[in-house]
TrEMBL record:
InterPro entries from the UniProt entry: EF-hand-dom_pair, EF_Hand_1_Ca_BS, Kazal_dom_sf, SPARC/Testican_Ca-bd-dom
Pfam families: SPARC_Ca_bdg
Name this polypeptide is given: SPARC/Testican calcium-binding domain-containing protein
Phylogenetic lineage: Eukaryota, Metazoa, Spiralia, Lophotrochozoa, Mollusca
PANTHER family: BM-40, SPARC OSTEONECTIN
Provenance organism: Lymnaea stagnalis
SUPFAM superfamilies per the UniProt record, alphabetical: EF-hand, Kazal-type serine protease inhibitors
TM stretches of this protein: none
GO molecular function, one term: collagen binding
Length: 268
């Protein structure tokens, strides 16, 4: 059973990394299309004030009686109000929503103290993971002690799998070094550099960790408590030093290799 679980976790993490790569490519394609239709969009913007209006998450722009633009909570998510398993999402309040749109809508309603808010008193409702909320058991003290070792092994296996798929050719040297090191320090550093994306400041924010948390929280109940523990000073940022210590690396092995990795990636 543990082998099946480990395989599922590894597959999910590999899919997460693949999805991040595809997203970067998709963004470029969208930018190209937008450039080609720029003239038409500019005309439409001048005609409709909402094109200039930037609304927050869960909001849409509408025009009042004077054709002035304003943001309001989204009244309609454009999907049937019925439960479809493939669309369900779980919030940080452990509440299941019909879709990501419904979650964002409720976030707006609660932020503006609307009576339709389903979680009165909540000012920030976030997407925790995809799928219906699951009852997560508490992470035991013994499980937490074992987690750093398990995480290091996962990261090494993920490196191997990504290399097999030819998705991280630029990390072949790191992979060879990681294979010789029983502590899997190189795999730990690789994953930190992979997470440190926006911005690349040698700190991993909760925002940068979202892909991992969303994909794995429902399967690994120790993950979030572990990440909380890594953030030693509780500033919602995990530095390279905090990451290394949290994963129980020796001080001499917590070295910044991100610049070399990113540089190598650009030349491949």
């Amino acid at each position: 059973m543990r082998t099946v679980f480990l395989a599922a976790v590894i597959a999910l993490l590999v899919c997460v990394i693949d999805a991040k790569s595809r997203k970067s490519g998709d963004d470029g394609a969208e930018a190209s299309v937008s450039a080609g239709d720029q003239a038409e969009l500019e005309t439409e913007r001048r005609r409709n004030p909402c094109y200039r209006k930037k609304c927050q998450r869960g909001e849409v722009c509408v025009l009042d009686e004077h054709r002035k633009s304003k943001c309001v909570c989204s009244p309609d998510c454009g999907v049937r109000e019925v439960r479809q398993e493939r669309l369900l999402v779980c919030s940080n309040k452990n509440m299941t929503y019909l879709s990501e749109c419904h979650l964002d809508q409720d976030h707006c309603l609660c932020r503006t103290n609307d009576r339709k808010c389903t979680s009165p008193g909540s000012t920030k409702i976030l997407l925790e993971y995809y799928g219906a909320c699951k009852e997560l058991t508490a992470c035991t003290e013994n499980e937490m002690k074992q987690f750093p070792y398990r995480m290091r092994q996962w990261l090494f296996i993920i490196m191997e799998e990504m290399a097999r798929r030819a998705a991280i050719g630029e990390y072949q040297d790191l992979l060879k070094a990681a294979a010789k090191d029983e502590t899997r320090a190189y795999a730990v550093i690789w994953k930190f550099c992979d997470l440190d994306t926006d911005p690349q400041d040698r700190q991993v924010s909760r925002r940068e960790l979202l892909y991992t948390i969303r994909a794995l929280k429902a399967m690994e109940h120790c993950l979030v408590p572990f990440l909380d523990k890594c953030d030693a000073n509780s500033d919602r940022e995990i530095t390279l030093l905090e990451w290394g210590k949290c994963l129980e690396l020796e001080d001499g092995k917590i070295t910044d290799k991100c610049h070399a990795i990113k540089k190598h990636r650009k030349t491949d």
